[in-house]
Amino acid sequence: MIRPSIKNETARLRKVVLGLADDFGGVPMLNQAYDPKSKEHIINGSFPAQEAVIEQMKALKEAVLKYNVEVLHPDNVVGVNQIFARDIGFVIDDVFVVPNIIIERKEEAEALASVIAQIPSENILRPSDEIRFEGGDVLPWNEVIFVGYSKQPDFDAFKVSRTNEAGVEFLKDNFPNKKIIAVELNKSDTDAKQNALHLDCIFQPIGTDKAIVFKEGFKYESDYQKIEDYFGADNLIQITRDEMYEMNSNIFSISPSVIISEKSFTRLNKILRELGFTVEEVEYDEIAKMEGLFRCSTLPLVRE
């Protein structure tokens, strides 16, 4: 039996679902891609190969296991990209939320059934069909839940809009003891440097009182200001548009002091070490070509 428990993004990790790369389906047709960065690499002939993603996910798993974390996986579905486990489920406090994600990822969601079956039914929350969100847009942080979303007409206009206003209201209704800080994101189906696919692609808390952030990823200055007001300007690590494109905010915390980061994030990793973090560097640049990185690949179930 799994009793989920997640209060925030950084408490000591004990149990996590990692995505699978074993049969990720290879290079999709251009019309099968649903984010601009994947489309870019399909067009350029640089989309990652099966062997590369297997090797890089293996390296991530080894880094997690180094800290005595129990690792689970979804059931394998041949020919389906299951690398990004974060979006198909997430935990807030002791509740496992099963979100409504885009129809193209239906098989990914169904493959999590064996994990969900281990969670008591009273700890599972399923929204109705009109309520839309994905785990990359929902970041629990103690008394707060940060949510990235799109209002109309953006939600219907962009394939990369994954969380709607109904999703924000659902979280408010079901977690009344939390303060919901909802922020609108900039979206583009064609330009990855102008697109915030999920909130965790432009923002992520680290440690106990700091965060990584890309200011221009928020649709409105006032939404970015909500982040600055909460953490304080001095506690924010600002990243550039190019660093956002390379997924610098999508690192993953094992504990308040240990962070898994991409080996190539030279400037960020230096800053993190200067702040006292232990940085576990993992090569994940091939997987980054699909507009996701470490947080996208992990679904924490239990933190201390």
In short, what is this structure?
The protein has 304 residues and is α/β, with parallel strands linked by helices. It is built from 10 helices and 15 strands.
Structure description:
This protein is an alpha/beta fold. It has a single domain (13-303), classed as L-arginine/glycine Amidinotransferase, Chain A, CATH 3.75.10.10. 25% of the residues lie in helices and 20% in strands. The chain contains ten helices and 15 strands. It has helices spanning 36-44, 50-65, 106-110, 113-116, 154-157, 165-174, 221-231, 241-245, 266-274, 285-288, and strands at 13-18, 70-72, 90-92, 95-97, 124-125, 138-141, 144-149, 179-184, 203-206, 210-213, 236-238, 252-253, 258-262, 278-282, 298-303. It is globular.
**What is the straight-line distance between the termini?**
17 Å
CATH architecture designation: 5-stranded Propeller
CATH-level-4 superfamily name: L-arginine/glycine Amidinotransferase, Chain A
Q: If you compute it from the alpha carbons, what radius of gyration comes out, rounded to the nearest whole angstrom?
A: 17 Å
Number of domains: 1
Adjacency order of strands in the biggest sheet: 2-1-15
- Report the β-strand fraction as a percent range: 15-25%
Biggest sheet features: 3 strands, mixed
